[in-house]
Amino acid sequence: MIIETMTMVEFEEGLRATRTVLVPFGSVEEHGSHLPLSTDTIQAYEVGKKAARLIPLFVAPPVHYGSCRSTSCHPGTISITTATLKSLMKDIVRSLYQQGLRNVIILTGHAGGSHRMALQDAGEELLPELPELNIAVVTEYELAYREGKSIIETVDDSHAGEIETSRIMHSHPDLVKGCAEREFPSFPPGLLVRNKRKYWPGGVWGDPSKASVEKGRLIEDLVVAKVVQLARTLEAFEE
Asked: pLDDT of 155-169, one tens digit each?
């Protein structure tokens, strides 16, 4: 059940089938010279929509903005503060809760450290406030990397590399513009640098040349299966 396309009558009827909702979080962030700025959002939203075809599940409209520190100097990245991100997530979950939803999966396609921690902190702060809330905060990329280990050829593949290029080649082939160069950036250990692009010029962390449509399909299906499993676990969870 894709919330943005539903009427209020359909939403009300949907509550009879499930009280579980997935909220996709993404980013507007550079993904090399070959992938769209919305890559993180696309991946999380596609997984949610596919999971909703398998089980009763509400899928909220995606949140397109995230906290993007390491790519803040690259063209196209539009970042928000962690404070804004936390407030946004908490307000969305509160409203969903008010509408009758009780099991919430926050699925973030953006895997930045500050971004993930902000979402996790927001979830922790909501638990004592909303007594019937069950909530999970999951990083979509971590699921893809872990579940797709037998498929992925590139060691330490991360940003706009083999995995993400494969995923977008599968779901949105028209948005893939060629193939960027293999890149593994190296930042000064322990130092905080202003000009991050100096140490990461191409915006890739991995090897896009190893990507394929078939890998993208297989990895996406594996992530969808894990999200379905998580939804069922959340619905049965009792403290």
From this structure: 999 999 999 999 999
